[in-house]
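Example for tutorial group B:
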């Protein structure tokens, strides 16, 4: 062979980046053996380095073992790196120790992989001893190594409890988004909104800041001792501050970074943007947006997605859309952001449509995408679509993803299929506090005692309780009328778990006392709350006054509500119905006049049902549905049949100046009755009917639906704004207590 050929082979070995494929790497190795055997240890180390770039662990190891000990530092570096990038972190660290024991001195190329392995094994002590080694070698002034050290400290010096969140940064977001979607279901002016809104989740994801600050001290020290800092160093420290919730410091550092000669890059900006979206600071967010445009980052996918998130959190979905449409390239991440933007802001239909578009555009959804879209199915109670997605999730192997499974539990529970929810829950590899909470909340909404026994199991399993799970437990007690148990859990929560009761907890208990007829006790309880009660807490009691026909208390409670919110439509509507039912038409008329003067309208009741993959919505007395004729016919037919079985319409809440026939008609066309009639005529006999309603089911409809379930031989599941009702054979799962 000519020396010229050998020269060119050497040139290849010097310039690793020229080798673009595994095949080329092996080809080069083969030629080397053919032309230069025996190959020197130095040249072999270069081949190993190239192999490790392609993650060819086995080939690297085989070659490594042919070299006489002690192998050159470069070979060790490659082996350590290759182990780490193959996920064999322990092997990587063992090799690091072996390397030192054979007398090879690690250089700046070795430490990043070693520190990465320490992070992955969550071994801070080992990381610290590596830091000692770095200092002894005088490498602590090295930029590359310094960045790796900061990263190690930023990631490892966090309290244990929150580590999973760091591993999966999307978890927090996902939790946030499905809670938000719940909030959107329960309109704030609605009675009992607190029961399932789950605002308390904040407590669950908030970090104990003081402990973390300790970790950041070390990071800062490393940062300060670095003689040269690059964008990565700044990014690491800014990100550390953002993760620890020290936003002021993060922003201060951003400014400082700008003052030094470095310009923030797309990673910096996308780290900083969530601060503004979390604090709903549209003004500052827009400043960053402006900065991004001026510096040519506006086409960047990272930034684009962060901006979409920011605008969505500030409820500016239109701006999110605009940004999305301007992105030169939309990947799964930016699709996720825009879909989440819709779902979080209650635009469920649009979210689902975008998801379909994403699939049509051949963008493969990330595991995370499913947990974003699932709450939309849950909200629209589109069980069919939810099941289709579930099948898709199984096909794409995403069913073992903890967050996806959790969102499936939530979806099935909210679509009224509690059995499937439980099956998925039971088959989850690990159940974390969020999945337990979802499952318990699912049971609570169905009024199952299982909620309470599952909560006991959760305690036995040693899973940490959180504020939301107690909302679920108290809700379950409330739905089952368990006053003593509720008191017990309420005090356990504060005394044993150190969770301060929030509005939802108070509301659940007040609601329970009210339903049990203990109105005075409920009144005293609300009056003694250590946080200021809201209108919705009081209005839970007001609806109890209506059920128990206690006018004196109702007046007292209404006064409290109007002190807090003089425009509380829900309270006026309740009073109006209450006086109407009692035949106090004069009082009722007064309220009607006040409402008119204030420009208030009772919120229209709306029910929806999914038929053949399409969601149909019905409003009380609405005649606009294309099949209205058939629906009306079915309604009359059903009414006649249940009247023959003994059903008597309860028209007590309809003004008395309306004639009997009109009254009978008015109650029979409540929105859930229309939806059920439509369900009956458009599905085969015996199919379960699932209806969702935005308000509480009225007493008359509840009675009528019990009759319908028996007469028509159908299981009917109605989800109202508070809970589920399973009607079967003339009975309801709530035991008429709702
Ligand atoms: Zn009704
Ligand atoms: Zn019921």
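The residue assignment follows.
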């Amino acid at each position: 062979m000519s020396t010229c050929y050998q020269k060119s082979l050497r040139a290849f070995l010097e310039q690793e980046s020229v080798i673009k494929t595994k095949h080329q790497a092996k080809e080069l190795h083969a030629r080397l053996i053919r032309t230069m055997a025996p190959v020197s240890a130095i040249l072999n180390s270069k081949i190993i380095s190239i192999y490790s770039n392609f993650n060819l662990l086995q080939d690297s190891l085989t070659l490594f073992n042919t070299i006489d000990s002690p192998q050159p530092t470069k070979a060790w570096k490659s082996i350590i790196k290759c182990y780490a990038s193959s996920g064999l972190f322990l092997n990587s660290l063992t090799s690091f120790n072996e390397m030192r024991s054979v007398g090879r001195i690690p250089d700046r190329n070795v430490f990043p992989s070693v520190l990465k392995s320490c992070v992955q094994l969550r071994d801070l002590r080992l990381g610290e001893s590596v830091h000692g080694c770095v200092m002894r070698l005088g490498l602590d002034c090295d930029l590359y190594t310094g960045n790796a050290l900061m990263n190690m400290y930023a990631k490892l010096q966090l309290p244990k409890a929150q580590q999973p969140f760091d591993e999966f940064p999307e978890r927090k977001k996902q939790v946030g988004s499905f809670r938000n979607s719940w909030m959107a279901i329960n309109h704030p002016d609605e009675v009992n909104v607190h029961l399932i809104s789950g605002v308390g989740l904040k407590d669950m994801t908030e970090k104990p800041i003081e402990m973390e600050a300790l970790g950041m001290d070390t990071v800062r020290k490393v940062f300060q001792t670095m003689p040269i800092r690059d964008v990565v160093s700044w990014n690491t420290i800014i990100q550390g501050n953002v993760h620890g919730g020290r936003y002021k410091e993060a922003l201060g550092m951003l400014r400082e970074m700008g003052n030094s000669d470095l310009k923030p890059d797309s990673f910096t900006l996308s780290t900083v943007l969530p601060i503004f979206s979390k604090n709903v600071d549209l003004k500052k967010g827009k400043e960053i947006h402006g900065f991004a445009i001026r510096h040519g980052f506006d086409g960047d996918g990272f930034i684009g997605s962060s901006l979409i998130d920011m605008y969505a959190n500030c409820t500016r979905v239109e701006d999110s859309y605009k940004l999305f449409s301007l992105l030169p390239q939309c990947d799964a991440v930016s699709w996720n952001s825009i879909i989440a933007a819709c779902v979080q802001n209650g635009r469920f239909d649009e979210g689902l449509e975008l998801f379909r578009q994403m699939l049509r555009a051949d963008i493969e959804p990330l595991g995370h995408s499913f947990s974003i879209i699932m709450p939309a199915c849950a909200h629209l109670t589109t069980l069919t679509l939810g099941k289709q997605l579930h099948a898709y999730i199984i096909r794409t192997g995403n069913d073992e993803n903890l967050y996806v499974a959790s969102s499936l539990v939530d979806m099935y529970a909210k679509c009224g299929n509690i059995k499937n929810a439980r099956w998925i829950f039971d088959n989850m590899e690990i159940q974390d506090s969020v999945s337990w909470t979802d499952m318990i909340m699912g049971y609570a909404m169905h009024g199952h005692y299982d909620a309470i026994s599952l909560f006991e199991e959760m305690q036995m399993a040693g899973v940490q309780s959180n504020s939301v799970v107690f909302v679920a437990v108290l809700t379950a007690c409330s739905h089952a009328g368990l006053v003593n148990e509720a008191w017990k859990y309420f005090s356990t929560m504060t005394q044993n778990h150190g969770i301060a009761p929030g509005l939802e907890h108070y509301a659940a208990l007040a609601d329970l006392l009210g339903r049990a007829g203990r109105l005075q006790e409920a009144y005293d309880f609300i009056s003694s709350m250590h946080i200021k009660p809201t209108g919705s807490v009081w209005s839970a009691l007001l609806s109890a006054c209506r059920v128990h026909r206690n006018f004196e208390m109702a007046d007292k409670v209404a006064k409290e509500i109007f002190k807090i919110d003089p425009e509380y439509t829900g309270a006026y509507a309740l009073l109006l119905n209450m006086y109407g039912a009692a035949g106090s038409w004069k009082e009722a008329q007064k309220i009607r006049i006040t409402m008119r003067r204030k420009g208030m309208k009772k919120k229209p009741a709306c029910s929806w049902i999914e038929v053949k993959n399409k969601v149909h919505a019905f409003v009380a007395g609405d005649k606009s549905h294309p099949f209205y004729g058939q629906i009306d016919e079915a309604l009359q037919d059903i009414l006649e049949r249940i009247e023959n079985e003994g059903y008597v319409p309860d028209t007590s809440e309809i003004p008395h100046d309306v004639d009997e026939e009109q009254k009978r008609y008015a109650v029979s066309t409540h929105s859930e009755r229309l939806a059920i009639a439509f369900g009956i005529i458009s599905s085969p006999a015996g199919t379960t009917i699932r209806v969702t309603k935005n308000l509480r089911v009225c007493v008359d409809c509840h009675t009528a639906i019990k009759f319908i379930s028996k007469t028509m031989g159908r299981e009917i599941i109605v989800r109202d704004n508070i809970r589920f009702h399973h009607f079967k054979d003339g009975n309801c799962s709530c035991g008429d207590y709702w």
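Residues 235 and 268 are 6 Å apart (CA to CA). Compare this with the pattern of hydrophobic and polar residues in the output above.
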